[in-house]
Amino acid sequence: MNEHDPKGIPQTTPRQSATFTQDINSDIRRAAATGIYDIRGGGAKRKVPSFDDLLFMGASISRYPLEGYREKCETSVTIGGLHAENPIELDIPITIAGMSFGALSGPAKEALGRGASAAGTSTTTGDGGMTPEERGHSDKLVYQYLPSRYGMNPDDLRKADAIEIVVGQGAKPGGGGMLLGQKISDRVAEMRNLPKGIDQRSACRHPDWTGPDDLEIKILELREITGWKVPIYVKVAGARPYYDTTLAIKAGADAIVLDGMQGGTAATQDVFIEHVGQPTLAIVRPAVQALQDLGMHRKVQLILSGGIRSGADVAKAMALGADAVAIGTAALIALGDNDPKWESEYNALGTTAGAYDDWQEGLDPAGITTQNPDLMARFDPIEGGRRLRNYLKVMTLEAQTIARACGKNHLHNLEPEDLVALTMEAAAMAQVPLAGTNWYPGKPGTSY
Amino acid sequence: MQTIDLSETGLREMNKTLHAQAETTNQTTWEIINPKGAHAIACGLDAPIEVTVKGSTGYYCAGMNQKATVNIHGSAGPGTGENMMSGKVVIEGDASQYAGATGHGGLLVIKGNASSRCGISMKGINIVVHGNIGHMSAFMAQSGNLVVCGDAGDALGDSCYEARLFVRGEVKSLGADCEKKEMRPEHIEILRDLLAEAGSDAKPEEFTRYGSARNLYNFDVDNAAAY
C-alpha cells in the first residue's frame, strides 16, 4: 500500500473497527439483502468461559494417584433409579444427545445407534419421532417428548428405555426449532403430519401444560402410560439452572439434562444461538446446588451437555457434580461431518470445513444432516458407527487417565477440590480457586 | 361389566388392569366410579374396550388413547384425549383447556363447551364440540377436523396448517393466516359423518369452514407483522 497520498502526505493505516468487525459487517449486509434473520445450525461460536479455563491439579503428596493402566477406574453410571422399575445402566457416562430424524439422515441415526451401543451407552431421538433405524441399532434409546409432538405415539413410548421431556435446549432457551422446506421430504412430512416442502416450526413450549405443576401431572401421565417402567428425564436449557433444576425435581424427574449455550441445534436464528443462554461452565454448580439443597444429588442424575468435546471436558463436568454428559455436535464430527475431505464441496457452498453450519439447507456434503438421497448415500453407517465408538472410548480413556491422576477409582469420585481456574470468570462460575490461590470470587469468608 | 372403584383401587392399579386387556379380551365393558377429578385416568389404553367414567376427571384423561372408547359422565380436566391415536372419547360435560391437544387420530366428542386451546397442534384427530370453544383453539393445528356447533373464541386457527375447522356459530376473531374457506361437497360429507358419529343434530350446511391461507408456510420478511 502507498503510505503517502498524491500530495506526499503520510496516510494513516486503515483500521478495522472492533465493534463493526468484518463478521458483523457481513451479517448486516446479509440482513439488508435478504430481509430475514440468519438461520443456521450448530452451537454458539463466540468465545465464552469454558471448561478450557479449568485445570486439574493431579496428585503428589497431599493426594495419592492411582497407577495408570493398572489400577481400575470405574466409569459406569445408573440413571433413573429413583422411580423407574428399569433404570438405565450405562458402561460410560457419555451419552448421545437428542438429534432429530429430519435434521439428520436415517443412516446417520443408525450410525449413532451403532457407535453408542458398541461403547455401552445410550442414544436419544429428537424432534420428529422414533425411526426403526435408531431403535434397531440402539441398545438403549431415550425417546424425547417434545413440545411439537411430531411422530409422538404410545407404541414408541413403550419401546423406549427412557423418556426425556424436552422443555428447553441450550442453543435456544425459550425458542422453538425449525426445519426448512428443503428437508421436509416425503418421509419427514409423513412422520410430522405436515405438507411436504414447507418451512416447519417447532413449538417453543408444550401445548398442553403451562408450568411446573402441569409438568408434574404430565410426568404422572407418561409414567402411567409406560407402567412406571422407564426413567423420566427432564431436559432444560441452562438459563436459570438452580430454579429449573429445583422445579424439575419437584415435578418428579428421575434425571435432569442440562444444556449450556455451546449446545447445538439443527436450525434456529443465529441471534438466539449467540445471545441467549449461559455457558455450560456456568450452569453446573447452580444445578448441583439445587440437587444438594433438596438432598437429591446422585439420586436424581444430572446429565450435562453443551460443547463437550474431550475426556477432559467429561472429567471436569463430573468433578463439578454431573453424573454424565451428552454429546451432539462432537458426535456428528466423529461421524465425519465438516471433514476436510469434503473441502472443495464446502467451498462450493461458500464455506469451509469446520465452519459449515447451514444444516437447514439439506446440502451437507458429508451426507449426515440431509435428506437428499444422493448425499445420504455417501455416508456409511457402519463406518460411522465404528468412528463414534472409537471416539467415545477415547474420551472415556482420557477421563479415566485424569481421574487416576487425581487418585480416583471412579469418575464420580472426582470433585471440585481437584480443580483450579485459570481466570477469575471461570473461578467464579465453577466455584473453584483461581490457580495459585485458595480463593474464588464470592467464596464465603474472603474479600475481593 | 367390570367396575373399578377409584376410591378403593389406586390409579396405578386401575390403569394397570385396563392396560392388561388384550385385543381379544372378553371383558370389553368397564366402569370407573369415584374418579373425583383424578389425573391420568384411563390413559394409554390400547384395546377395543369401552370405559365409562362416572364423574369428573382431572388432567389427561384418556391420554394417548388407542382403540378404546372412553365415556366421561361429568366434566373433563385439561388435556383430555391428549395425543390420542385412535378410538373415541366422549365427554358428556364441559372440557377444560387443550382438549385433544396434538391428537393424531380418533374422535373426541365434547357434549358441553370446551375451554381455550381446544385442538392445539392437532395432527389428524377429529374433534366435535356441541357447545362453544375458547380462544386460541386449533393453534398450529396440522391436520384433522375441528367441528364447533356453537361459537369460537379469539384467534381461531392461528398459524394452522392443513386442519379443517368448521364453526356453526360466531367466530370472535381469526388467528394469523386463518381464513374463511369455500364449503365444498366433500366438506359437507365429512361434516355429516362426524356430526352423526358425535350424536349432534346440527346440519352440515349451517357451518362455515376455516383453514390456512398458507401465507406463512415459508419465511418471508413481508409477513413479519403477522406474528
Brief overview:
The complex is a heterodimer of chains A (448) and B (227). Chain A is of the alpha/beta class and 448 residues long. Chain A has 15 helices and 16 strands.
Explain this structure to me?
- The complex is a heterodimer of chains A (448) and B (227).
- Chain A is α/β, with parallel strands linked by helices.
- Chain A has 15 helices and 16 strands.
- Chain B has helices at 11-19, 185-197, and strands at residues 2-5, 29-33, 50-54, 69-72, 88-91, 107-110, 123-129, 143-148, 164-167, 178-181, 208-212.
- An 11-stranded mixed beta sheet of chain B has the order 1-2-3-4-5-6-7-8-9-11-10, covered by helices on one side.
- The longest helix of chain B has 13 residues, at 185-197.
- Chain B is built from 2 helices and 11 strands; from the N terminus they run βαβββββββββαβ.
The largest sheet of chain B has its strands arranged as 1-2-3-4-5-6-7-8-9-11-10
Major sheet of chain A: size, sense and barrel closure?
8 strands, parallel
Nearest-angstrom radius of gyration of chain B?
18 Å
Overall pLDDT metric of chain A: 94
